[in-house]
Design brief:
- The protein contains four helices and two strands; from the N terminus they run ββαααα.
- It is mainly alpha-helical.
- α2 packs across α4 and α3 packs antiparallel against α4.
- Among the domains are: about 45 residues; about 55 residues, Helix Hairpins, CATH 1.10.287.
C-alpha cells in the first residue's frame, strides 16, 4: 500500500508519504517548551521571593541579636557553669582538688574512689584519645585519696 509514489490527501492537499510530517508532534514540542518556560519563571520567582524573605529576616534579626546578647551579659555566669570547677591545677594536689577531679566527696570510701577513678579513666585514657596530662592528674588524685584513706 505504501510506496514512494502513492499520495495522501490532507485538507485538500496531496502529499507523498516521504514528505508527510505530523503536525501533532510539532505542537507537542512547542507545548513542552511553553510549559518548561513557565516552570523556569516560577522557579526564578520562588528563588527571588526566598532571597527577599531572607534579607528581611536578617534585618529583623540584627536588633533581636543585640537584645539577646545584652540579656546574656546581664545574667550571672554561675547559672551556666555551676557544677564545673574554674581554674587550673595547683602545684601540689590537695585533698579538695583530688575530690573535685574525681567528682566525689573528700571523705568517700576506698571503693567509691576506685569506682570514680575507673569511670573517669575510661573517658580520659590516652589510648582512647584522652590527654596524658589529664590521665596523670586523675591517677595522682586517686593515689592521694587512697593514701589518706585506709578503709
Amino acid at each position: 500500500m505504501a510506496n514512494a509514489g502513492s499520495r495522501v490527501s490532507i485538507e485538500g492537499e496531496t502529499m507523498r508519504y516521504a514528505e508527510y510530517n505530523s503536525q501533532s508532534k510539532i505542537r507537542s514540542e512547542t507545548e513542552i517548551d511553553k510549559r518548561l518556560g513557565g516552570t523556569l519563571i516560577a522557579v526564578g520567582l520562588g528563588v527571588a521571593a526566598a532571597g527577599f524573605a531572607g534579607r528581611y529576616a536578617f534585618q529583623l534579626w540584627k536588633p533581636l541579636g543585640q537584645v539577646l546578647s545584652q540579656t546574656a551579659k546581664k545574667m550571672p555566669t554561675s547559672t551556666f557553669s555551676s557544677h564545673y570547677y574554674k581554674g587550673g591545677f595547683d602545684q601540689k594536689m590537695t585533698k579538695r582538688e583530688a575530690s573535685l577531679i574525681l567528682g566525689i566527696s573528700p571523705t568517700s570510701t576506698k571503693s567509691k574512689v576506685r569506682d570514680a577513678h575507673r569511670r573517669i579513666m575510661v573517658l580520659n585514657h590516652p589510648d582512647k584519645g584522652g590527654s596524658p596530662y589529664m590521665a596523670a592528674k586523675i591517677n595522682e588524685a586517686k593515689d592521694l585519696l587512697d593514701k589518706d584513706q585506709r578503709r
